[in-house]
Amino acid sequence: MSEQVKIPETPETVRRDSELSDIEHDIHFSPILPEVQVSTNEEEEEVFLKLRAKLFRFSKTDPPEWKERGTGEMKILRHMEKNSYRLVMRRDKTLKVCANHYITPWVEPKASHVSERAYLYNVCDFADEKSKSECFAFRFATEENAKLFKSKFDEARKNLLTDCDLYNGKIDAEIRKEIEKNLQELEDEEKEANDLSEKLSELNVTKATEEDSDTDINKETESNLHEVEKQEDKENDENELSEKLSELKNETKEKQEATKGKVEK
């Protein structure tokens, strides 16, 4: 047997082994694209039921027929704050939404007459990002899954009437309070407008009274001025008459003196 010859370690071999060791541990590949956070719009909801199913929709074509809409995971989600329920289903592989609608107390799944593994109901769906009335049929792998779907769906409908403010009357009470508050504000505004109108009327009456008073004063002033003018005219007439009398007296005196001079001659 050949013996293994151990190569003695030298400073050069130690340095080379150290560099190789560092290179092996320091290998790091940075991602080329940044990490993207994808939102499913289910962050505030919890899973109430999750089953695999095949979804059909009733098409009103000629002739009418059931069309397959997709196969995948069907989930009933409960909103943790609002206590509302929503059914969401995505197709396998593509994960495209094929069913997305809220559960209401009036939506009741009915058992299919063709298969014991299927339930159908009418609902307003938003899978295509717009409201559309649909007739859906869910078919499950087993009869037990179908019954579980029916049981959980009915439980969600029952919970809505007690836990969800939209259906238990709490929102109606809040809306009623808001309406009463708005009516009270309108009444207060109307009362304030009436008070302001009364104040304006009082101001108008006061202004009219002041105007009437000013008119009376002006009339009285004009009357006094007229009397003064009359008095001045009377005084002027008296002065003129006095002057005429003085003139007549002077003329009479002159005539008497002229007559007296003639008589003496």
Sequence-ordered SSE layout with sheet pairings:
Layout: H1 11-25, E1 45-59, E2 65-79, E3 85-91, E4 97-102, E5 110-111, E6 118-125, E7 132-140, H2 143-163, H3 170-264
Antiparallel strand pairs: 1-2, 1-7, 2-3, 3-4, 5-6, 6-7
What percent of the residues sit in helical stretches (DSSP H or I)? 40-55%
Strand count, sense and closure of the main sheet?
7 strands, antiparallel
Strand content is 15-25%
- Ends distance: 214 Å
Which outline best applies? elongated
Question: Notable features of this structure?
Answer:
alpha+beta; 23% strand; 265 residues; single chain; 7 strands
Summarize the structure.
This protein is 49% helix and 23% strand. The protein has 265 residues and is α+β, with helices and mostly antiparallel strands.
Description of the molecule:
The chain has 265 residues and is an alpha+beta fold. The chain is built from three helices and seven strands. Strands 4-3-2-1-7-6-5 form a seven-stranded antiparallel beta sheet. The radius of gyration is 56 Å and the shape is elongated. The model has no long low-confidence stretch (mean pLDDT 81).
